[in-house]
Write a structure and sequence with these properties.
This protein has 246 residues and is mainly alpha-helical. The protein is built from 10 helices and no strands. The chain has a single domain, classed as Up-down Bundle (Ferritin), CATH 1.20.1260.10. The chain binds fe (ii) ion (FE2) (2 copies). The site of one fe (ii) ion has 5 residues, from helix 6 and helix 7.
């Protein structure tokens, strides 16, 4: 997917929001077995919370950036993007409710992510945000395969389609913000991500193990997602003059 302009990104995500809802099998009677539930409960609750962010700080930073760059469509695109993430949270919440998995009100990982996103400028906020996007692809692949729930599989399949688009969208955003003169930031980003991969692997290991995904597979899937992000950034850098981040 080539998100060539902020206006295109905004209209693409808006069209998805206005489209009929995905035909998920909400009435499917399958309920998680005790083994499936034990493996995913802690993990799905964390991701359900993480997807629910309202993104107030991100939007405020984007508005500051737009005032400088004139790219107000990026603010709209980010609003639509946040709405799409909140939809993921609602879908996961339904599966959790059907299977008696309680929602989390807070978790230290989510709190840490939200605090990090409040640091400095829009580029830092987006950098922290895309760490979750890079991890989302291997994670939802594992969650899809960790149980036999038709509803959870359908939801994860759709979330994975959305998350692939998010990588392209946020890669473009990073390309726009970083420009082509700052290769060091990509190197530092990759190193920070390697630490995040390890933390996520340790914390969500029961899901990955149940899906038959080893550490090596998980890490290589994460790096593949990071490549997608960088390719989207490179496409943006190739077509747009560098704008300084605010
Ligand atoms: Fe998501
Ligand atoms: Fe996402």
């Amino acid at each position: 997917m080539n998100f060539a302009t902020s206006s295109y990104c905004a209209s693409h995500f808006r069209a998805k929001r206005l489209a009929p809802p995905p035909p998920f099998p909400w009435d499917e009677p399958y309920r998680l077995t005790p083994g499936e539930r034990d493996a995913i409960a802690h993990s799905i609750a964390q991701f359900q919370l993480g997807e629910s962010s309202e993104g107030h700080h991100l939007i405020a930073r984007a508005q500051q950036w737009a005032a400088n760059s004139g790219d107000h469509a990026l603010v709209e695109a980010l609003r639509e993007f946040i709405t799409e993430e909140q939809r993921h949270s609602r879908w996961l919440g339904v599966v959790m409710g059907q299977n008696g998995i309680p929602k989390l009100k807070s978790h230290w990982v989510d709190t840490a992510f939200r605090c990090l996103r409040k640091l400095l400028n829009l580029e830092v906020a987006v950098t922290v945000l895309v760490s979750a996007e890079v991890i989302a692809v291997p994670y939802y692949t594992a969650l899809r395969d960790a149980t036999r729930s038709p509803l959870l599989k359908a939801i994860c399949t759709r979330i994975l389609e959305d998350e692939q688009e998010h990588l392209a969208f946020q890669g473009r955003t990073l390309g726009l913000l970083r420009g082509n003169a700052i290769g060091l930031r990509w190197t530092a980003h990759r190193l920070a991500l390697e630490a995040a991969f390890l933390l996520v692997w340790i914390d969500h290991q029961p899901v990955f193990r149940r899906a038959g995904i080893s550490w090596n597979i998980f890490r290589s899937q994460c790096l593949e997602a990071f490549d997608t992000l960088q390719q989207a950034a490179a496409r943006e850098i190739a077509q747009v003059p560098v704008l300084s981040s605010f």
